[in-house]
Specification:
Number of domains: 1
Number of strands: 16
Strand content: 5-15%
Helix content: 40-55%
Shape: globular
CATH architecture: 2-Layer Sandwich
CATH class: Alpha Beta
Amino acid sequence: MGQEINRTCFSEADLQQFSLRLAEETAALRSFAKSGGFKDARYVAGFELEAWLLDHGGRPSPVNEAYLRALNDPLVVPELSRFNVELNAPPVEMGAGVLAAMEESLLTTWDNCQRVAHGMDAVLAMIGILPTIRDEDLCLANMSAMNRFDVLNAQVLQQRNGAPIRIDIEGADPLHLIRPDVMLEAATTSFQLHLQVPFDRAGRYYNASLICCAPLLAAAVNSPLLFGHRLWQETRVPLFEQSVELGGYNGLAESTVRRVTFGRDYVANSPLELFEENLEHYPVLLPMPQAEPSNRFPHLRLHNGAIWRWVRPLIGFDAAGQGHVRLEQRVLPSGPTVLDMVANAALYFGLVHALARQPQAVESDLPFATARANFYAAARHGLQAELSWLDGRRHSAHELLLETGLPLAHQGLRDFGLPDAEIEHYLGVVEARVRSGQTGSAWQLQRLAQVGGDVHRMMDDYLDNQRSGAPVHQWGL
């Protein structure tokens, strides 16, 4: 969700003061790292899950304020719209049992959330884009009651000089829209993975995370529909990028300098380069002065939270004040089931660990432009995407996962100390999904065709299968 702010109006003096603090903290971060401030060498996993509140007709139910009061769980917080919430979990150190612990934690929170939703005559759903959502649902009246979201909307429009937001997405049924606000972002819900890594290895893990994006997303697509239009296998990607479209900052003509972005390049040494890029090329959207001590880099962290890289570096502190760097992998959609999502987490954690630990930096074998092209190909075509890989050859995503990606992920998880039984349980779910070809997106499209394009009937069937807990490759048509 990002942190809340306590004001909605800011002066030019506020902006100047914030920008000064941001510059000071960016320089201080480099000094902090150089002096050995990041001492925590552990690998720690975490996640955030964005979910939908629905009525029993399968429509969005804008009740998250009352819902969160009834739930009273600090790990569940608002999202951009009144019909979305975000579920969080305590971080877990990588090692034996980590995936099982993640699954148990998420299932426990999910079951409790669902119980409270049922008490309000609502239901909770996890899906990348809700097929039954209507354009009129995505209005400012349905924006969550948080200052942060009001300011983000106003600042995005201001920096666009009031120009409306244009949505142009190709597919079987191309979609072209003009919108006056950023609320289309609320249609995109994700399962975001966090991996804390040792600082001296963070650059390698960041670059490996970018390379992972394409095979990871190809295996996990779950967002093929918007307003009844069949679009990309993971329509979240172009929709999110276009719904807060800003770019070309400070004289840079590069189309890749965008607020939602795959990035401009790999990092040369560490993710700290990205915080310097934030300072140099991204205007401040939330110029809220921060009271937190400057050695916690509060202005830098707030600014970073309003730049949505698909792989985003984060600076954090534990309860004892120990600083760390973690990577937020943002490409995965919400759903279809808890087991599917934890299996996707297994694929990411294992694959990134294996790639980052190769004797030669893997980014030297795959140009950044190719990694970026792979990502968009995977978003558009899912398992049918053609991807270039480290061997210099092109493979179908299906073939690449089965022959290379999954074995590498198995090795990476073993190197993290996970036992073979745990690895095989979760990666086996991904393997079965890839072999069957039945991703969440594939199931939605096939089921929609079978029911004559009735998105409500298809969504009812989706929710029935989701409640069963069976992974999506086992869902019947």
